[in-house]
Specification:
The chain has 15 helices and 33 strands. It is α+β, with helices and mostly antiparallel strands. It folds into 2 domains: 5-229, Glycoside hydrolase, family 65, N-terminal domain (Beta-galactosidase, Chain A, domain 5, Distorted Sandwich), CATH 2.70.98.40; 251-693, Glycosyltransferase (Alpha/alpha barrel), CATH 1.50.10.10. Strands 6, 7, 8, 9, 11, 12, 13, 16, 17 and 18 form a 10-stranded mixed sheet that branches. A 4-stranded antiparallel sheet has the order 1-2-3-4, with no helix packed on it. A 4-stranded antiparallel sheet has the order 5-10-15-14, with no helix packed on it. β3 (29-32) and β4 form a beta hairpin. α7 (363-378) runs antiparallel to α8 (381-399), α7 packs across α9 (447-466) and α9 runs antiparallel to α10 (470-490). It is globular. It starts with a strand and ends with a strand.
Length: 694
């Protein structure tokens, strides 16, 4: 792994090395809404690189870095302790502390060097040299402020650096003269503000005693409006508030407890503000800090037991971006739910379609499933009525553009030259292939998408019935049953006891053995006789690594345990499979998956399940192997832990109450304050006495 240290809160995140430095020419930086506002931020003492000691995250938005000095003409090695305390929320605030532990007085120069390339996150992710068309201007303001500004057409961004003490500013460097007697301490701080659309983004979480005066050193000619654009209003809850409101878990299983606590904190940090209104789960750090239709919907589905707010906000945000037109550049069709919403330069200026990109086959049925599941947890019929026009538009897309050839299955085929070739959750170019490794040609009807469509229609029938719209409910129920019957005939591979990955453009089964059919258990589209065969098949050694179900069987030609989608293990994938196995009553197989993932979390940094990890068999080593470049934290991996807990307990919501049965061999679980139907419920599972729902 690259040993980077990340801090994150909502729309802002920062990646640095173990010294706290943002090293130019790397993937490091301070990012806000898909733009890198700092591409360089280095600290030197008398021109020398400090020696790193220990660093790490205290919580998602706060990191601390300890270092000391190397030997120099006037310094003995280890004479100085240097501490950098870093906070992100809106902007960046950093406290810098130097302590002279030497026996002699210290005279030294501390230098901070900054750079801002305003690169789009797509440019940073692509690697290589970043060449910007617009020019970056550097401007010192009075004696406590440094400003970088980038202009290209109507895309204007600035970075404002404010110092607590006046430094000597030369170009992009700020220097401080440090004079300390033995055992004396020097403290200073720097606040860094992104400026978007002429509004400076406020820093909302720094220690008050260190924050510079609100308008200290501000030049009226700077390209932002007077005052701060504080995206955190009175109704906007902090990440810490989210954690405090989440249901508390007490259990004798330390692995489960640590994984749950980490997941809740990660979910709190990954809440993205969309259009200044809705808090939606961003997909993951660092490359997917955006609203993704699929990822945000699945995360919201996984985590309704923590509270309905993320699900409600996700539904409303996705509905706001639901398509109303055809646009091949964006793979856009009426009624379709978006795949990805980006705010960086490339998207804003139309070089890529991602300001509103719709290249996904599954986000639309997942939107409908989320609407239904939210109703099951809340009983809120008013929300259903509010979003009913969006639901109808989504259903129309499923039956028209989503099924362009009218064969009854939702397919995808890229129309945009800038779009994704594959448009399911396994969206890498080589992920949809036959058992011999040959790539499938589209249009592609993915196995799990048909399950989502079945579930969406069955659930919508339930909602229409609740609203008294019986005729529409019966129509959707009949459509779902027809789809289920045809699906079990057309996708089933009798010799493999599993469904095919997909049907290709010639309606042939794409016969790779993959994890995708496991989602169909979660959706309920699988016939009972086939479910028993699937349950056994999913935990056979070629698919089940011992740490989880692999994305692809080790027997397939394209299998690679460290590939993105062809042999790795994805926690969110496994959480849906485990939930599906429980739905059909296969608790033993579900518990094998639950236990494997929780065991993996105990070996991974910070007890955190990342986006994915390698599919190497557990017997070959005592720990799961991390994959290079995997996003961490990842929202639906954090959400997986919550869904695994729900699976252990067998919780099922019914508007105003829950049914449940514990299925795992855990001596005691107490989950306090689980929200259902507008009230909080305590769930207790104890082997010493009967389980209880209070």
């Amino acid at each position: 792994m690259d040993n980077s240290i990340s801090v994150i809160e909502g729309n802002t995140f920062m990646v640095s090395d173990v010294l706290g430095d943002v090293v130019p020419g790397t993937h490091h930086g301070l990012f806000y809404s898909d733009t890198r506002f700092l591409s360089g931020f280095t600290l030197r003492l008398d021109g020398a690189l400090p020696l790193a000691m220990t660093s790490g995250s205290l919580d998602a938005a706060h990191a601390r870095f300890y270092a000391t000095n190397s030997a120099g003409p006037t310094l003995s090695q280890g004479q100085v302790t240097l501490v950098r305390d870093r906070y992100v929320c809106g902007g960046l605030h950093e406290d810098i502390t130097l302590v002279n532990y030497g026996s002699q007085a210290l005279e030294a120069t501390l230098t901070l060097k900054f750079a801002a390339d305003f690169a789009d996150v797509f440019e940073v992710r692509g690697g290589g040299q970043i060449e910007k068309v617009g020019a970056v201007a550097v401007k010192p303001v009075e004696d406590r402020q440094l400003t970088f500004t980038y202009r290209r057409a109507e895309f204007v961004r600035s970075t404002v650096v404010v110092f607590s003490e006046p430094p000597t500013i030369l170009g992009d460097e700020a220097s401080f003269a440090i004079n300390l007697a033995p055992k004396e301490t020097w403290q200073g701080c720097v606040s860094i503000y992104p400026v978007v659309d002429r509004k400076r983004i406020a820093i909302t979480c720094a220690p008050e005693h260190n924050v510079p005066t609100d308008e200290a050193g501000v030049d009226e000619d700077l390209p932002f409006a007077a005052g701060h654009a504080n995206y955190a209003n009175d109704e906007d809850r902090s990440a810490n508030d989210f954690v405090l409101r989440a249901p508390a878990l007490l259990t004798d299983d330390a692995t489960l407890r640590f994984a749950y606590d980490r997941a809740v904190r990660d979910l709190a940090a990954l809440r993205l503000k969309v259009d200044g209104v809705h808090r939606v789960p961003a997909a993951g750090l660092p490359w997917y800090m955006a609203m993704f239709g699929r990822d945000s919907a699945i995360t919201a589905l996984q985590t309704l037991a923590l509270g309905p707010e993320p699900a409600v906000d996700t539904l409303r945000a996705l509905a706001a971006y639901q398509s109303r037109r055809h646009d091949h550049f964006r793979d856009e069709e009426p009624g379709k739910i978006p795949h990805e919403i980006r705010l960086g330069e490339l998207a804003s200026l139309g070089q890529i379609p991602h300001s509103r990109y719709y290249g996904t086959a599954d986000a639309t049925p997942l939107f409908l499933i989320l609407l239904s599941e939210t109703y099951r947890w809340t009983g809120d019929a008013s929300l259903v009525k509010e979003l009913l026009p969006n639901a109808e538009a989504a259903l129309r897309w499923i039956d028209t553009d989503g099924d362009a050839d009218g064969d009854g299955y939702v397919e995808y085929a890229r129309k945009s030259l800038h779009g994704l070739v594959n448009q399911g959750w396994k969206d890498s170019p080589d992920s949809i292939c036959f058992a011999d490794g040959t790539l499938a040609e589209g249009p592609i009807a993915l196995v799990e998408v048909q399950g989502y469509v079945y579930d969406a229609k069955a659930r919508l029938a339930e909602l229409y019935q609740a609203l008294g719209l019986t005729e529409r409910a019966e129509e959707l129920r009949a459509q779902a049953q027809v789809l289920k019957r045809r699906f079990n005939q057309d996708f089933w591979m009798p010799g493999e006891d599993l469904f095919a990955l997909a049907l290709d453009g010639h309606k042939r089964q794409v016969d790779s053995i993959t994890s995708n059919p496991g989602h169909c258990l979660w959706s309920g589209i699988v016939d009972e006789d086939k479910a028993a065969l699937m349950a056994r098949r999913l935990v056979e050694p070629d698919l089940f690594s011992g740490w989880g179900v692999r994305t692809m069987s080790a027997r397939m030609a394209a299998y690679n345990p460290i590939s993105y989608h062809n042999g790795s293990v994805w926690p969110h994938d496994n959480s849906l499979i485990a939930a599906g196995l429980t739905r059909y009553g296969f608790h033993e197989e579900a518990n094998r998956i639950v236990t494997a993932l929780l065991d993996a979390s105990a070996h991974l940094p910070n007890h955190r399940l990342p986006e994915l990890f390698a599919g190497y068999p557990r017997t070959s080593g005592g720990f799961p192997v991390e994959c290079l470049g995997a996003n961490s934290p990842q929202a639906w991996s954090a959400g997986a832990v919550v869904l695994l807990l729900q699976t252990i307990l067998g919780l099922a919501p019914h508007q105003d109450h829950m049914t449940w049965h514990d299925t795992a061999d855990v001596a005691e679980i107490r989950w306090f304050g689980v929200p259902i139907g507008g009230r909080r419920t305590d769930v207790t599972c104890s082997r010493a006495r009967e389980s209880a729902l209070v």
